[in-house]
Amino acid sequence: MTDAPLTPRDADDAEAAEYVLGVQSLAERTASAARVKRDPEFAAMVADWENRFEGLNDGFDEAPAPNLLPAIEARLFPKPAKSPSRSGLWRWVSGAVFATAVVLLGLATLVPPKPALVAVLATADARLAYEVRHFGGELQITRVAGVPAVAGRVHELWLIAPGAAPISLGLLDRAELVVDYPRPPEGWTLAVSIEPAGGSPIGSPTGPVILAVEVGAET
Fold first, then answer.
1. What number of other Cβ atoms are within 10 A of residue 83's Cβ?
2. Which pTM value belongs to this model?
3. 39, part of any domain
4. Domain of 193?
5. Is 64 a member of any domain?
6. Which of 15, 96, 156, 168 could form a disulfide with 195 if both were Cys (CB 3.0 to 4.6 A apart)?
7. Do both 123 and 49 map to the same domain?
8. Number of domains making up the chain
9. 22-60 pLDDT, tens digit each
């Protein structure tokens, strides 16, 4: 079975439908567009098909065509990179200097300060010596030379204000003694005596004073 050939009117009607649907080749569409202008009967067929297909678009909103011109111009004519202004460069330099200062300050706070030397109590031959340092409301007394007292005896540290009785700061039976006490003023005296084990029984030196130094005096 073969299809019956289209009549000239059927062929024109099919061409009008293809033109409205936009399925023709460029050459065919150009020829149909020219025919619409010169052939009123063909133009009427095109209008009829446009009316038929018009309802197919009722369920769709019109979508605006994308504006591609800015993107095309940006690719064809890229803007040169802006050189940093003086103000921007100055802000960058200032920020870098500030960041460096913060880092240095942080490093400085990580390094613990060294306790301040208050006095050194030492014999003339330096065979026995104690360093007294102050740090954070404490006195740190460290034996830097010599040995502790013999068995049954102990070195005891005294603080003597001008015109006042001695005050015991503790026993030096170990290499280091830490006492909660403020920094002694200049002119006060630090002294070490030899006492019985457990310290002086009367609250003042009972044995020989073997070391003494005035705070603030050269050692």
1. 7
2. 0.49
3. yes
4. 116-215
5. no
6. 156
7. no
8. 2
9. 888 888 989 999 999 999 999 999 999 888 877 665 655
